[in-house]
Amino acid sequence: MAQALVTVTTGSQTQHMPLRALRAPLPAPLPPRGRTFASCPDSHQICVIDSLGRLCEVFGEAGSGPGQFDRPSHVIVVSPRFEGEDASVDGIDLVAVADRGNNRIQIFEPEGQLVAIIGAPDGASAVACDFRDARAGWPFFRVDGDPRLDAPVRLEWADPLLVVVGADGTRTPIDLAAALLPSFDAWLATASRPMLAAAHHHFRHKVRSDMLAAPLAAIETALGIAGLEAGDADAAARLWSLSWPAGLGRPAREAHAGARDRAAMAAAFRLGGAARVGAVRAAIRQSLGAFALPVLSDGDRGGPVPRRLFGEAC
């Protein structure tokens, strides 16, 4: 009968052992300790083996979707540390799988639940930053893209870094705790007003990197829009009167100024408070200086409006 060779990893020790062609067994309770995990490239699965060497569970299947594998080549247990955690306290255990054929790393709970997928898909435009800047958006989001991984064949754990070794010998260090955060765009799309306020306060007074200039401006814009949508024009005016990050260039300032102005005017026509929204536009002028407003369509403002400058009256 055909046999498959699986790689079993416990800590830093690796051994190879032949197993018969695998079929998923009935679910069995997993012991809290003493588990090992094995990658089986032929069956595109990960095996869970108990402390007595018994195969107690298999997860995964062939494919390129979440939780699926294409010739997984290596699996290790990692324990990412989050900022502020005591080094003397054991961290959480996660299982990292080198999904070689899909050019990515998949992270699982020990019981097999998918936590995250790391690796830029084909055609991705965002690039990963240096791992030393990976926590610029901590603890809310990550500001960079996923690293591009080419046929990862081996994983090494060097707390807090997961080092991915490619088939060509390249080594890509990844700050795993930071990689588990959502992307900035995904976070911004779902963040509530209190979450936006918390992030704004955190980054305005604790900016770690120039990479945060544009995200901070986007957070301020979104927070002001949330205030306008709630009918609180005064809160938006106070927020948007703050000076902007020095690292934000003029083109980005003008783009965000246009977004703020459109939001303010749309709120004016919706809420019927054009006079109060005028204070918001004045606050935008105060924070940005005399930059020209973009030409807005009639639908944005509710009627024909001539082009204005920030230095002119609303």
Give the quaternary arrangement of the chains: single chain
What's the end-to-end separation, in Å? 82 Å
Shape: elongated
* Count of the separate structural domains: 2
Entry summary:
This protein has 314 residues and is an alpha+beta fold.
What does this protein structure show overall?
- This protein has 314 residues and is of the alpha+beta class.
- It has two domains: 3-179, no CATH class; 191-301, no CATH class.
- It contains eight helices and twelve strands.
- The chain has helices spanning 176-179, 184-190, 193-205, 213-229, 233-240, 250-271, 274-288, 298-301; strands at 3-10, 13-20, 36-40, 45-49, 55-59, 72-78, 94-99, 104-108, 114-118, 152-158, 161-166, 171-175.
- Strands 2-1-3-4-5 form a five-stranded antiparallel beta sheet, with no helix packed on it. Strands 6-7-8-9 form a four-stranded antiparallel beta sheet, with no helix packed on it. A three-stranded antiparallel beta sheet has the order 10-11-12.
- A hairpin with a 2-residue loop joins strand 10 and strand 11 (161-166).
- The radius of gyration is 26 Å and the shape is elongated.
Write the layout of secondary structure elements.
Blueprint: E1 3-10, E2 13-20, E3 36-40, E4 45-49, E5 55-59, E6 72-78, E7 94-99, E8 104-108, E9 114-118, E10 152-158, E11 161-166, E12 171-175, H1 176-179, H2 184-190, H3 193-205, H4 213-229, H5 233-240, H6 250-271, H7 274-288, H8 298-301
Antiparallel strand pairs: 1-2, 1-3, 3-4, 4-5, 6-7, 7-8, 8-9, 10-11, 11-12
Helix pairs in contact: 3-4, 4-5, 4-6, 5-7, 6-7
